[in-house]
Amino acid sequence: MSEKIFVTKSYLPPQEEYIAYLNGIWERHHLTNQGPLVLELEQKLRQYLGLEHLHFSSNGTIVLQMALKALRITGEVITTPFSYCATSHAIAWENATPIFADIRKEDLCIDPDCIEALITPKTQAILATHVYGIPCQIERIEAIAKQHGLYVIYDAAHTFGVQYKGKSLLSYGDVSTCSFHATKVFHTVEGGMITTPNAELSEQLKLYRSFGHVGDDYFDIGINAKNSEFHAAMGLCNLPKVDEIIAGRRRVTESYDQHLNWEKLTKPTIPADVEWNHAYYPVFFETEADLLKVRDALAAQNIFVRRYFYPSLNTLSFLHAHQSCPVSEYMAVRALSLPLYPDLPDHDVERIISIINENL
């Protein structure tokens, strides 16, 4: 039996590069609490992404919670049903109410027309996901938010390295968050970041990340969303490799694009004004039965794909949602993410394509 292939494989830098950072940590005995490597990583991220205010944090979920808390969101938040569960879980965890707006079939992102139809006096914010790193309808969402006095938070977990109209996709919205989980294009093993163009809000988020105090001076409530020197070290090793990582992912993407059977499959549309990061390779089947047949055929050859995103979040009973989202529900049972990482060998890519095409 061949070696197992998973939907992703975490990039690891040359071991000696990471060990060099570890040696410095051992010398300094400064392990966490905004150590020098964390500060260095934050500064290099600001430079790479072109962002003024940015805070490295412990994961991509807690920064969503921090955003909701900092914006004093306690009412209704219009959000997408087609995302990882962290998006809606963060809303519910903060005792706000997720209201699900359906998505656009073209890009799987939240549909602005559906957002407008759901706005009530209780609505305080829109929390949208740039699905698979593909931008939402940013200008329309901004116009809707401005008209109704709403905040816009972007779950930009998939967007590291994505450029929209010449700027980092993370630069849009009142707050934008990103995940640096091990499965992402850029990772720090575990981690995340939060950014905002508002300097005052940035300072509030910085306080929230570290229990609401600076030294012995306490200013507000807070939580422990800091990250360690060990995670920052991984980020400092990986950041210079991002362009190379994206190029490797693009190679796999182009093979899928050229050789999959597009008479039986569809995929999202990447707009012309987007420089994409190839974070995922989703395909959509004509029926769920077709998807399951292909998934099982791949698994029989030790190739493990993922139903990403499944199920449609508005169908989760514990979220107490009452909104029908027919497009999301339709796409969620037909969506499958294929293996995608820089060092996936060409012969394995060809084998994956062959198995899929043979079982359609």
TrEMBL record:
One annotated GO molecular function: pyridoxal phosphate binding
Transmembrane annotation, as ranges: none
N6-(pyridoxal phosphate)lysine: residues carrying this PTM: 184
Alphabetically ordered keywords of this record: Aminotransferase, Pyridoxal phosphate, Transferase
InterPro entries in the cross-refs: DegT/StrS_aminotransferase, PyrdxlP-dep_Trfase, PyrdxlP-dep_Trfase_major
GO BP term, example: polysaccharide biosynthetic process
Family: Belongs to the DegT/DnrJ/EryC1 family.
Name the record gives this protein: Aminotransferase DegT
Organism (species): Siphonobacter curvatus
